[in-house]
């Protein structure tokens, strides 16, 4: 089947998509956007988090056909030429180790701070409970969120 | 704060810490990376410059092994055994080959070279040969034009199995002669008696590394008949050797490059899809990509050995250890992998970091039809630590001492002797680490915010039923490879003018797996060469082996090699300054530094000292900011001038000081290179009615010798501690009759951000005189003692014996 949708602000088309393919597969293997990651492909780890019509979803759980005519934003679409403050904060805080969870966390934190510009500790933890990280023990991720929140306040 | 530490000099005063709450960062951690470090140079050692791969990773543009793509590529899939033990009477691939879009279906008969591989013993089939020995063993592989086509075709392969009764009980395996290795340790009087005796049997479940980036890679057939392999691995050259043997090719025709690694933790030491993708690529003449799904990943790599540990500790009434007797049984599963080395670790580290005059330890590894077990962070030391630290708490109770006091009373110290007879050289601050975590302020008492209660937002826990407990543990780990293994790492460093600016190119085969090794390599080059611009090349097999990114060894080993190569470059520069050896010849020197100075592996350029910080060589010359000055501060030359004659390149193979095998009867011998220590204090809140545990705080104290990159050190300590928490409370592959029942992140739980508490960290920097910059391996120790500390805290809260990890709710409610 054919899928037409808007990805990171641009109209994109994928042809010969199998009915069983996920949005994640189409993004990664057909549209050249491997930023969303394939860690579990069952909605448990959050590493494939993307925006679908402005709401964060696990792209692995979205059948590709459901993205037809809708707007997708991936981690590749967050920076505006330069790094987004959330991305900068992750680097500065040491929240990136292997980096496989990072794209999903960047989108999740981007969404959290859009809704709650200055989240309390417990709010951050609840918001990121669906994003697994195996390297950091999460401490530096919390630091990154605080850093990003502080910077966004200043600006 | 980070003080300057000279190798060979002990520096007791050097300690720093981060608090449990807030965004505290380690010294030298700067967001810009523009931190002037001890030892000289912007972004040199002791600083925490920005990771060179950081920007790519946050943009989603870093190429992990599952992100690779090639024109005309095919997808591989693997058919795996549904039985833990069976003969194979026949395989019919006809139906699979008939599927449109399928290009190849291969079985063991299609393996042109050695049909078995393995890290220590080549006993694991590339594809099953006449039998299968664990559930999930690869039997056949398929290449097709779509991953789903490949998977469906694999399902159409008909295998005629003769199902056998699997051996899944390690005790039965041991009694039945399926021994992989027995390591005995005998020290002192085996018949020693003591006033106080405590015994216990403990069990450790099968933990999984559960890295997030699945096994994956791309194999591209080469015009010369070889293959280019882009994979996520921990040791490129070990892969190369095994892949070449299986393909029946000379190693130079099997060229590996490191693709982005989505975590490792030991699970990438053994091969997974490397040979399979290469076989399919060579057969089809097209690039072949393989990517495991999560379920396949859980059966596609080795796990942490489950263990049964029996301990008897004898002590005086004052709590001084008289003897330790232990029997440790490790289930290695179907194939050997690294079981022999895991057994040696469990045995040689089996009494912990304590002075024990009389030791009798027997550690066994056996073959069963359970999933193969091998390397995971902590590597044999994790299992033993749960046993001996549980025992130290029992001893504390038996003699009426505080848990920290009984440990301090028996603490190993510098100059002390291990059960193997090996003398611990260099700092061994066991007592001090325990005191550091003990003396931390206690976390605040339980509140009534449901998000801070064991039941969480489900709001199931009433605050008044919560009981709090505090527990302690300390562990010991060997760093680098042991038992006489010829452990080396090679680095090639080239200094040249690029755009008129001196630039160092560092090339090794060392695997960056997330730990930050690429950053550390660049830091060392900056410090040693006094340049700011450093490029770390992609790790591949065109340079000599770096050894594995395991055993907490890579900063020590590849860091040591990079330092040695940089110093060789400096020496060549100095010669050029002196008008010595022809400048044009300085483009490819290769030196084997192994024997330069036998003890300590210190590069043999005598005049170079310590942290160096850009000192060129003898005579007090200093290289900083691209200028060479003498002791009086006079400028003798600039890098730009010296490099105008051409680049300088040196390659050095570097070794740590030699180790020796363990005596096969007594277990005596100087088997280990370096010991590392970490201590934990865990504070938990328990809801005993629901069997729920919330870890309130974990405090860690660790001696890292020298923090080359403080931010990365903290990352290792916090991440490692979280994995220890996982083993304490939730992580276990449920293996029933040889079958993993929970191969998913739905059912195999790893800690989320809700499970991991704030982690206070105290870091000591007590230089090891034998190690580069005095550093001590960092990655594994925090994983080792976190588990027993948390279980001790739950015992303190509940009074339950809890002799098994992970602790499940039913162990707390008495319903399981």
TrEMBL record, chain A:
Q: Which UniProt keywords apply?
A: 2Fe-2S, Iron, Iron-sulfur, Metal-binding, Oxidoreductase
The residue ranges of the 2Fe-2S ferredoxin-type domain are: 1-78
Write one Pfam family the protein is assigned to. Answer: Fer2_2
Among its keywords, does the record have Oxidoreductase? yes
Against InterPro entries, the record matches this protein to:
2Fe-2S-bd, 2Fe-2S-bd_dom_sf, 2Fe-2S_ferredoxin-like_sf, 2Fe-2S_ferredoxin-type, 2Fe2S_fd_BS, Beta-grasp_dom_sf, Diverse_Oxidoreductases
The yes or no answer to whether the keyword Cell cycle is present is no
PROSITE patterns attached here? Answer: 2FE2S_FER_1, 2FE2S_FER_2
Identify this protein by name.
Answer: Carbon-monoxide dehydrogenase small subunit
Organism (species): Plantactinospora mayteni
Automatic annotation (TrEMBL), chain B:
Against Pfam families, the record matches this protein to: Ald_Xan_dh_C, MoCoBD_1, MoCoBD_2
Per its UniProt record, what InterPro entries does this chain match? Ald_Oxase/Xan_DH_a/b, Ald_Oxase/Xan_DH_a/b_sf, Ald_Oxase/xanthine_DH-like, AldOxase/xan_DH_MoCoBD1, AldOxase/xan_DH_MoCoBD2, AldOxase/xan_DH_Mopterin-bd_sf
Query: Where do the Aldehyde oxidase/xanthine dehydrogenase a/b hammerhead domain residues begin and end?
Result: 59-165
Q: Which residues cross the membrane?
A: none
What PANTHER family does the entry give? XANTHINE DEHYDROGENASE (PTHR11908), XANTHINE DEHYDROGENASE SUBUNIT D-RELATED (PTHR11908:SF157)
Q: What is this protein called?
A: Aldehyde oxidase/xanthine dehydrogenase a/b hammerhead domain-containing protein
Tell me what organism the protein belongs to: Plantactinospora mayteni
């Amino acid at each position: 089947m054919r899928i037409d949708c808007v990805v990171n602000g641009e109209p994109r088309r994928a042809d010969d998509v199998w009915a069983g393919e996920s949005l994640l597969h189409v993004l990664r293997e057909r549209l050249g956007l491997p930023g969303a990651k394939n860690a579990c492909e069952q909605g448990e780890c959050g590493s494939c988090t993307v925006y679908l019509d402005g709401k964060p979803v696990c792209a692995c759980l979205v059948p590709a056909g459901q993205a037809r005519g809708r707007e997708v934003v991936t981690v590749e679409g967050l920076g505006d030429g330069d790094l987004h403050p959330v991305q900068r904060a992750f680097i500065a805080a040491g929240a990136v180790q292997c980096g496989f969870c990072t794209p999903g966390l960047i989108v999740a934190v981007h969404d959290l701070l859009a809704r709650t510009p200055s989240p309390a500790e417990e709010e951050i933890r609840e918001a990121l409970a669906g994003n697994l990280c195996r390297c950091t023990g999460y401490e530096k991720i919390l630091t990154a969120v605080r850093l990003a929140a502080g910077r966004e306040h200043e600006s | 704060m980070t003080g300057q530490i000279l190798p060979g000099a002990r520096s007791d005063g050097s300690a720093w810490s981060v608090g449990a709450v807030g965004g505290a960062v380690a010294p030298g951690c700067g967001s810009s990376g523009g931190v002037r470090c001890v030892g000289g140079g912007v972004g040199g050692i002791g600083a925490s410059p920005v990771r060179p791969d950081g920007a790519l990773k946050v943009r989603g543009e870093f190429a992990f092994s599952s992100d690779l793509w090639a024109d005309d590529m095919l997808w591989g899939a693997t058919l795996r055994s549904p039985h833990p033990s069976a003969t194979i009477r026949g395989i019919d691939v006809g139906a699979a080959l008939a599927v449109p879009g399928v290009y190849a279906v291969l079985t063991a008969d299609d393996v042109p070279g050695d049909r078995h591989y393995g890290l220590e013993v080549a006993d694991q089939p590339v594809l099953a040969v006449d039998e299968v020995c664990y559930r999930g063993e690869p039997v056949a592989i398929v290449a097709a034009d779509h991953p789903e086509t490949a998977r469906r075709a694999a399902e159409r392969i008909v295998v005629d199995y003769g199902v056998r009764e699997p051996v899944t009980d390690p005790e039965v395996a041991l009694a039945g002669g399926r021994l992989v290795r027995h390591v005995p340790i005998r020290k002192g009087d085996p018949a020693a008696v003591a006033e106080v005796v405590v015994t216990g049997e403990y069990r450790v479940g099968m933990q999984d590394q559960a890295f997030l980036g699945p096994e994956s890679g791309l194999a591209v057939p080469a015009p010369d008949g070889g293959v280019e392999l882009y994979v996520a691995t921990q040791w490129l050259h070990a892969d190369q050797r095994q892949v070449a043997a299986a393909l029946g090719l000379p190693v130079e025709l099997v060229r590996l490059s490191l693709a982005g690694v989505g975590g490792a933790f030991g699970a990438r030491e053994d091969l997974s899809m490397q040979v399979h993708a290469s076989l399919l690529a060579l057969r089809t003449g097209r690039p072949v990509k393989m990517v495991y799904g999560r379920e396949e990943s859980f059966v596609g790599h080795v796990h942490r050995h489950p263990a049964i540990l029996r301990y008897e500790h004898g002590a005086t009434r004052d709590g001084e250890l008289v003897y330790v007797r232990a029997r440790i049984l490790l289930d290695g599963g179907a194939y050997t992998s690294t079981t022999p080395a895991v057994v040696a670790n469990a045995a040689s580290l089996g009494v912990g970091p304590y002075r024990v005059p009389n030791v009798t330890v027997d550690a066994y590894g056996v073959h069963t039809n359970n999933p193969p077990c091998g390397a995971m962070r902590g590597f044999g030391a994790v299992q033993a630590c749960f046993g001996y630290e549980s025992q130290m708490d029992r001893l504390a109770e038996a003699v009426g001492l505080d848990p920290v006091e009984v440990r301090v009373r028996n603490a190993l110290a510098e100059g002390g002797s291990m059960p193997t007879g090996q003398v611990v050289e260099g700092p061994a601050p066991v007592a001090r680490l325990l005191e550091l975590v003990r003396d931390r302020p206690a976390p605040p008492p339980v509140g009534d915010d449901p998000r801070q209660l064991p039941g969480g937002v489900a709001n199931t826990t009433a605050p008044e039923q919560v009981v709090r407990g505090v527990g302690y543990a300390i562990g010991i780990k060997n760093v680098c490879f042991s038992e006489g293994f010829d452990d080396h790492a090679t680095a090639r460093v080239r200094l040249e003018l690029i755009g008129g600016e001196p630039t160092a190119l560092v090339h090794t085969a060392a695997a960056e797996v997330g730990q930050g090794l690429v950053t550390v390599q660049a830091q060392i080059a900056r410090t040693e060469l006094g340049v700011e611009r450093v490029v770390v090349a992609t790790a591949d097999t065109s340079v000599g082996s770096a050894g594995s990114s395991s055993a907490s060894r890579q900063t020590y080993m590849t860091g040591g090699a990079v330092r040695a190569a940089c110093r060789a470059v400096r020496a060549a520069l100095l010669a050029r300054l002196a008008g010595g050896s022809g400048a044009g010849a300085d483009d490819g020197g290769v030196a084997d530094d192994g024997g330069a100075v036998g003890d300590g592996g210190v590069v043999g350029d005598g005049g170079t000292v310590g942290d160096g910080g850009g000192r060129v060589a003898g005579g007090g010359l200093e290289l900083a900011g691209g200028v060479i000055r003498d002791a009086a501060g006079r400028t003798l030359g600039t890098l730009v001038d010296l490099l105008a004659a051409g680049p300088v390149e040196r390659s050095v193979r570097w070794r740590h000081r030699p180790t020796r095998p363990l005596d096969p009867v007594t277990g005596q011998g100087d088997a280990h290179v370096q010991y590392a220590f970490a201590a934990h204090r865990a504070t938990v809140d328990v809801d005993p009615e629901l069997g729920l545990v919330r870890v309130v705080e974990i405090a860690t104290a660790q001696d890292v010798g020298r923090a080359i990159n403080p931010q990365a050190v903290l990352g290792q300590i916090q991440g490692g501690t979280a994995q220890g928490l996982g083993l304490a409370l939730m992580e276990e592959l449920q293996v029933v009759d040889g079958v993993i029942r929970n191969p998913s992140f739905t059912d195999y739980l790893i800690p989320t951000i809700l499970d991991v508490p704030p982690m206070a960290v105290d870091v000591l920097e007590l230089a090891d005189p034998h190690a580069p910059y005095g550093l001590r391996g960092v990655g594994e120790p925090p994983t080792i003692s976190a588990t027993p500390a948390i279980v001790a805290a739950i015992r303190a809260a509940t009074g339950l014996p809890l002799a098994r990890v992970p602790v499940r709710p039913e162990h707390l409610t008495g319903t399981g």
